[in-house]
Amino acid sequence: MVERPNRPSALSAPPATGPGPQVDIVGSGPSSKVVATLPSGESVEVLLYGATVTSWKSNGGQTENLWLSEKAALDGTKAVRGGIPVVFPVFGPPPKSGHPTSSLPQHGFARTSRWEFLGKSASEDALGSNSVKLDFGLETSGVSDEARKAWPLDFALQYSVTLTKDSLQTVVNVRNEGEQSFEFQFLLHTYLRVNDISKVTINGLLGVEYIDKVLNATTHQQADMSLKITGETDRVYKSIPQDTTSVLEDGKPLFDVVRDNLQDTVVWNPWVEKAAAMGDFAPNDGFKNMVCVEVGTVDGWQKLDKGEVFEGGQIIKSLL
Length: 320
Ligand SMILES: O=P(O)(O)OC[C@H]1O[C@@H](O)[C@H](O)[C@@H](O)[C@@H]1O
What we know:
Layout: E1 22-26, E2 33-37, E3 43-47, E4 52-58, E5 63-64, E6 86-87, E7 116-124, E8 130-139, H1 145-150, E9 155-163, E10 167-176, E11 182-188, E12 191-193, E13 200-203, E14 209-212, E15 218-221, E16 226-228, E17 233-237, E18 244-249, E19 252-260, E20 264-269, H2 271-277, E21 290-304, E22 309-318
Antiparallel strand pairs: 1-2, 2-3, 3-4, 4-5, 6-11, 7-8, 8-9, 9-10, 10-22, 11-21, 12-21, 13-16, 13-18, 14-15, 14-17, 17-20, 18-19, 19-22, 20-21
Bound molecules: 6-O-phosphono-beta-D-glucopyranose.
């Protein structure tokens, strides 16, 4: 073999590519869901009804990070009690009258509409770690006649759910497809699973102003570094400067919830009486195993003119 002095050195071999993520559509009709599993075992399940994430497992598939009620309706008859329902175009009860959302039900129609699965894209980083992104779409033509009549505006939502080994990213893209401008609110109603609510602390809200819905919607300021849940809690933290809200249990970090272009966060736990009053909340003492940390834009309204787009979302890191 002729030796060439300037022979290029051998290119390093590309990393061996193992099997990629598995994505399946399971079930049929209103119960259809998309299930994605990484080769390392982590998984996510997204019901087409509401594009509701109903399960997210990390640690090779051994740790469920989301709380889902044992009585959650998963057949498209009712918004899912648990997981990550998508709230759009209004948060909470709509303004009583005089606003375009006034005739809509609490939390709008996105969580009770059937979304379309737009497809998956998988990727692998330099270290061979996989991720998978699932895209879902909902537009004006996909909502019920009732919802369209109540909010007759042309919109398109794209919702992307990306699973990595230790995180779940959920991002929405809202587009005004019509001639008229519109206003909306958006929120990701995430039910995080915890072992014992009495040991949970929530950090990252110090100094932030909040509306306390349990105290007649009065305004307060978070004075303690750590928020503890010791009773019914329903607070809207507004315009939070720091982008991460951390959930700890027994002093150990459980989750970091990182907001992207969403300024507000609702912290909700129904506690004993409210939990018992909800027909789809089970078991009754399930409130001990969950806390909702709901990122969103719900203080005031986002306005989109014709053709404009808004994008916002979260990354939840499982730190267990
Ligand atoms: O029962 P729903 O409509 O799912 O709402 C649950 C809770 O959702 C929270 O986001 C609200 O702040 C609470 O006031 C509300 O009770």
